[in-house]
Amino acid sequence: MTLNEKASYIKGLCDGMELDTASKEGKVIAALLELVSDMAIAIEDLEAETEELRDYIEEIDEDLGDVEELLCDEEDDYDDFECDGDCCNCDEECDIDLEDDEFFEVECPSCGEVICFDGSIDPEELACPACGEKFECIVDADDLKALDEE
Fold it and tell me: pTM of whole model > 0.70?
C-alpha cells in the first residue's frame, strides 16, 4: 500500500466515525488528515523524481565510463614515458617510439631537470618527473625547441 493509499484509508476511517468537524477536536483531526494526505502526495512525487534521477545518473555514469575507457586507451602509451637520449641529452631508456611525434623540452624551475613532452600534454600543467613539482610553461619558439628539429 502506498503512502497516498494509507492516508486515504485513515481519512476514510475518520469519515466513518462521523467526526464533528465543527468541534475543536474535529477541526484539528480534519486539518491533520489533510496535512497527512498532502505530505503523502509530496513524498510520492519526490520518490518518483528520485528514481528518475537515479536512472539518469546511471546512464551518465555508463557514458562517462565509455569516455574514460577511450581516453585511458590513448594515454596508456605515455604513462611510463622515459627518455632514451634521442629526444634530449639524458641517458635513460624510452619504452615508446618517439620518431613520429613532435616533442619539446623544458628545464624544471625547481630542480633543473630537463623534461621532454609531446603535444598531447598540456604545457600549462606540467609536472616534473624528478621532483614532482607542478609548473606552467608557455610553448613558444623562445622558451622551447621542437626536439624533432635536432
Answer: no
